[in-house]
Structures
1.
Amino acid sequence: MTVPPAPAALRGSWVRASTGAALLGALIVWVALLSPIIALLAHLTPAAVISSLRQPGAFQPLVTSVEASVLALAVIVLLGTPLAYVLARGRLPFPRLWEVGVILPLLTPPLVIGLLLIFLVGPTTPIGAGLSHLHLSASDTFFALVVAEIYESVPYYVLGAAAAFATVDPELEQAAALLGDGRWRTWRRVTGPLAAPGLATALAVTWARAMGAFGAVLIIAYHPFGLPMQIWVTLQETGLASALPFALVLLVVALPLPVAAYLWSARARRRL
């Protein structure tokens, strides 16, 4: 016995209902994700922001965070880009082992990363002793802040950059090599431009993650205060209202670059 197909009107109603449910769910998720930022803006007034930022030394945490994040980003790009490329091309022995090594820090709670860094680069460790000969310390120093930001944010760049390189067809690189281009020229003319949208997104997300690093920073780099630490200390000492302006400053500095990179990346991908 055969079952007659559903009438076209019934199928159309089902499609409309499922589409409507999907749109409603998407709207709920979208509003839920944006609601913390909306709540922040709703509880701030221009007068409160100006008053907080006029305090002596109010901008020093911002300067510290920006300087540390720029240095962390430079180290991550310098060391992480080659690793991301060879991961994407599968040129490393035991590639899954290398991937696990990148993913594990991403899955490790930042507070745990900070605790483990004490046993890795703390003053009483061999690495810490070696750093002391260079007049560096990975404990409550600017250098320690950079180290903490690197460990908290490097997986975001390596995984994002590897995904960007994976979108580049290796045959295009091989064709460029056959035409006489060296590795650097192939990178400049083929690999770099094609991977640029994904690399920009990875870099921007890494910037935001470095600027907002807190867990590992709390353990090994309590001083000097960056913006996240300033927010925490202000919250503890004077309450939520006093901490909100600094939270707004952190969002203003950290978020525009990832948003702009995402929009440019989406537009660039449509052109490819």
2.
Amino acid sequence: MRWLFLFGGGLFWLCGTNCLQAGNIRVLVSNTTNASQYNPAVGPGYVLLPTPHADLNVVWNAATQTFSGGFRTDSDVNGGGGGVQFGPEDALAYLPSTGQRQRTSSASQYDFQGATGETYWIFPSSPTASNNAFSLYLGFSGYGVPNDGTFTGSGASTTGRIRWTVHSVENLTTPAATAFYGYSVSAGTVNMQLTLDPAYPNREMVLLANGHSHLNLFFKAVGMYRITFRVRGTLVATGEEVSSLVPVYFGVEAWQIPAEGSTFAEAYPGKSLTEIASNGQTYLVNYAFGGEADQAPILPTQDSSDPAKLRLIAVIRTNDASVTWNGEVATSLVGGWNSSDVTVTDSPNQENLPPNTVRKIISVDRGSDPKKFIRLAVIKN
């Protein structure tokens, strides 16, 4: 049986279940005095890395025109020196039981915490010593994004900016428990920035290129979370907006990333053909593209190295012959799709990939056609 699902025009179907395999994954924990008594016993495949502070740091790759990211630790980790950057599969931030709180305020702006007396967990936006939480002190940064005129500014500013939003929230341990909020408080008023909850003000978090900021990160349940951020910026040279998905892992009283199955059936056990037919965009496409939320193909863009081409960049699974894909092009969305003019090459950037995957560049000549569309077709045999 064949199921065909298409990428194109900015449509994304993302991972809704556990995806990564443990393999020397760093678990970032607080090194505040007495914090070690709350460290998890992580077991094989995980390494504890105490640090006073870590940022969710974004990096810009000019060659591939993409953002990537992960945690970046302070300079006193691993014997000092410069900060250490980790990819999304390399590290997670651990929030111990001391991060548990109960809502005591009845002010309406704190309603997202739940009813008075309800429990939640929080990474604070101030150093852990100030609240005795023994929780890792986290920030947001764009230290890997050049502030050299690559990106446009915001408003009247001419200083480069990047912009964050939350794209998806997954609790890999308890899929139904996905409440997540990133916020700050000023003069008693919540400044809501990062949430998928439609009931609360949500907007992009604007961050200075090569800059730094802080938010409280708030979770409503225990579990291993994958928060996927969308990071975007506008290039000064072309006026083009570039956008990438950046996943970050947070362990709330849990630290182990559940393992992925090695085949489609193992990765999504118990899924009936009816479920696959109605939800195949999530299950099949996620699996075909390596099982990671940040690995969905990026929007079709003009190739910066060859303006005569359009391109897609995608991470492709290589170890399951029952899942295939084709790059296709057409001059109209209503039909005429073909692969005869599509070129597929290996990307020069093969870093931070899931096991058994490769990053590909799918490109096509723009030609003289007034419109041209490019897509990927994913087929399950």
3.
Amino acid sequence: MDKKISCRDLGPECTFTACASTEAELFERILEHGRSVHHTEDFSPDSYSQVRASMTEGYCDLEDALCKYGECCWEDERGSFT
């Protein structure tokens, strides 16, 4: 099962959501987003724990399929539906 997370789960008013097949890949996506959008450099131990606790399981392919029918659950970094 894939891993997913929303930036909103971590507090900021941000619509970014990511989904990946592994926890490590998801951390890379979140870190890249944090650097480019929120200007953070790295995870502190507390941030790492908060991100890890906010991850949920789901199916990325299912979300992609729903988008084809206009029922997207995920949003890209620009805040628009993918």
